[in-house]
Inverse folding.
């Protein structure tokens, strides 16, 4: 991908007044602001805190906190969230707060709005869930929710008393999509395949069943448009032994960590290729934040990609502050391709095989002392 990032984006201050979300753009309710998101700044709130992590092609990833009743998104400079991509309409979409939930609404943008790779109907709506991925043009906005423990307990208690489905059941930060019953969810796991396509933003495809078909066929669970991908190219299967990648007699083969395979076990951050289509497979345990990558790894990436130093530093900081996966954010933000990440980390681990264990030993020795 030819994603080259520029300088850091200037913070956007929230509007001074909150007005009706039906007002014209520029006079909309205060949507929030783009700023550094530090855990030390996070305080218990009386309502859920919506956050957008914005990965815009050509710019460093940034955060936007939703504090008002409506957030307008588009290319117009008066939007709350301004996206400079020419594929974004001037008034493209908006997010409305509805009680303790958030509703995404397409405003008729000519190129449409996608959520988790599924296109919304024109002027359609979608109830956002924690960890949804919104694609507008070539920009990817990750939607996160933070909720105080007190609020979470109150909402659940009210829902139990009324017999209704509570916002907390689908928007608790420690849980994700639970609408599909599958074995890996019973094992408290979530998995996604992040793929990059030429001239398009990276796409995150959350797995929704224990068997996911991948290919160019429109009926595939994960549809890839690259001509080197076969109609029924491969599948990801989960059983009690974990996730497995299975080739389905594809023409140009299926590869795992650089090796052509027929059947192989997947692990967190496995590098996969379907023909020439690159991807990164990620696994997360429910309720646990992703592992924190080391500063030496960050510095090594900066050495390899000097012209992307600013983007790597910003993405590393963002990942640590928001509890996000460093590799995912680098790829979703277009800073590195899956192949660049895999090759760099493989070489780092080869050159410094004891760096991680040495760090752990030093920490344990300090704790014992």
């Amino acid at each position: 991908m030819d994603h080259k990032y520029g300088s850091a984006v200037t913070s956007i201050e929230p509007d001074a007044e909150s007005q009706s979300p039906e007002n014209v753009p520029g006079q909309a309710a205060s949507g929030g602001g783009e700023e550094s998101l530090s855990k030390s700044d996070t305080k218990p709130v009386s309502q859920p805190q919506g956050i957008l992590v914005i990965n815009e092609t050509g710019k460093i990833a940034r955060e936007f906190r939703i504090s008002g009743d409506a957030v307008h998104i588009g290319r117009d400079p008066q939007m709350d969230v301004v996206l400079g991509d020419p594929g974004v309409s001037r008034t493209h979409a908006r997010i409305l707060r509805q009680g303790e939930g958030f509703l995404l609404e397409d405003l008729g943008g000519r190129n449409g709005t996608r959520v988790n790779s599924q296109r919304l109907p024109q002027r359609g709506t979608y109830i956002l869930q924690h960890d949804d991925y919104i694609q507008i043009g070539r920009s990817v906005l990750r939607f996160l929710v933070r909720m105080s423990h007190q609020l979470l307990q109150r909402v659940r208690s009210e829902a139990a008393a009324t017999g209704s489905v509570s916002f907390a059941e689908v928007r608790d930060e420690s849980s994700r999509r639970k609408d599909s019953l599958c074995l890996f969810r019973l094992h408290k796991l979530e998995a996604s395949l992040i793929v990059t396509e030429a001239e398009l933003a990276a796409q995150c495809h959350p797995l929704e069943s224990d068997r996911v078909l991948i290919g160019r066929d429109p009926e595939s669970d994960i549809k890839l448009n690259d001509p080197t991908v076969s109609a029924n190219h491969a599948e990801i299967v989960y059983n009690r032994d974990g996730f497995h990648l299975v080739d389905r007699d594809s023409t140009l083969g299926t590869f795992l960590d650089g090796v052509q395979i027929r059947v192989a076990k997947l692990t967190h951050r496995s590098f996969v290729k379907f023909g020439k289509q690159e991807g990164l497979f990620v696994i997360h345990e429910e309720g646990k934040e992703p592992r924190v990558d080391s500063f030496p790894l960050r510095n090594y990436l900066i050495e390899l990609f000097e012209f992307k130093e600013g983007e790597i530093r910003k993405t590393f900081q963002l990942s640590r502050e928001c509890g996000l996966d460093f590799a995912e954010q680098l790829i979703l933000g277009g800073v590195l391709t899956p192949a660049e990440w895999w090759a760099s980390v493989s070489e780092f681990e080869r050159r410094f095989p004891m760096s991680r264990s040495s760090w752990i030993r030093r920490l344990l020795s300090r704790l014992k002392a």
In short: Confidence is low (pLDDT under 50) at residues 1-30, 35-45, 165-179.
